[in-house]
Amino acid sequence: MSFKGFTKSVVRAPQTFKQRFNLGEHTKDPVFVDAERRFQELETETKKLHDESKKYFDAIKGMMTHQIEFSQAIAEIYKPISGRVSDPDSIVSEGNPEGIAACDEYELICKELLATLQPELEMIETRVIRPADELLDIIKVIRKTITKRQHKQLDYDRHRATLKKLQDKKEKSLKDEKSMYKAESEVEQATQEFNYFNDLLKDELPKLFGLERDFIQPLFQSFYYMQLNVFYTLHERMQGCDIGYFNLQKGIEEGFEEKQGDAKAQAEALAITKFKTAGAKRTPRYGPGAGNKLALEDRTSRLAITNGRSSSSVTSPTRRSSTEFAGTAPPPYSPGALTGANLQEKAGIGRANSVGSNWSSAAKSKTAPPPPKAKPSRLSGIPAAESVTALYDYEAQAEGDLSFTTGDIIEIVHRTNNENEWWTGKSRGKQGQFPGRLLVFLHFIPLIKPNDLERLLRRCILVVYQDCLSKGVED
Length: 475
Hints:
flat; five-stranded antiparallel sheet; 7 strands
């Protein structure tokens, strides 16, 4: 878009917005609206005709090309891997001479058939695809003309709105008179340009629709006859195809099973076709299924080596039963005993001998740690129970009601968001229903001292009493 076109788009933007949302006055021509709708259908269908005919052309040509490539791939499979030790037929010059000959013959037939169909394919391109391309070029030019007409309509409506605004102004200054004169000339010019394009399209589009019928009818007939020629050629050539490798007297499935033989069963019997995702089961190193060898043994053997020499005279400790350590008490601890030569002796052989029995006995004699303290209620996930206080006395009216007096603390069991409904609560060891409007919530009660509770209740009652007096309620 040029700078001039961008400037015009900016000037037309307000009028475009009004037209899109149907604001203000807009010029409407029913004849052109109907013609534009028909033209849009013609544009869509022509594009579809071009695309589908091109797909048909590519499908016929691609079908023959793929058949040729299919026969070449089968021939390569039939050929052995000559000179390789892994090929059992490497000494044979050809693995399947009959199959390879059939593939070559089939490839030759497909190439001849493609050459025979080439004139028909060229006719499809020249008589269907190319005329559709030319019609699309004409439609693009007409579409530009329709767009030009829409721009002229925006200018026409915009200048008319400006002129009407100046004419409706009661007191006009000299500047307004000059602006109105300029607006009148712009409206006159915009009217001429809009009428030119509008009348041109209303006159020429019906002629285009008449030519459309004359264009589509021969185009469809040509495409129909060319399809018949393609189908007849394919049927005739393939019907006369006689390759001795194939037995056409049998059905497709029967012939396939005869050629296949027991090759499928032999392939499934091969070990490499049965892929296993897991090997032998391994013993876990850690966890419940791990080996029962104590890690303490390795630690004991390391402690038995002191001062750079190994205690070879000390035998490796073995696992002992729990009954062996039951009667053995731990040796008394003496700070002064571990000095001098005794320190070396106990650090060496003494550790190796006593590490099993002494450590186990000490672990058993140790008392269990005390249980953890209970979690505070304010930190637990259980929501705290709601409590309310009674503002008035209430006597039970029926069975299941809860009676209370002014100032009683009631624990809420079930309530609704509406205080005019009946709630369920507990008070003085009893549970029942009561009107919710007679209570007040005590979310702040834990923060109030017990001595100030009575004073707070009296103040609440006084506030409610003053509120009743202000509303004219005497009782």
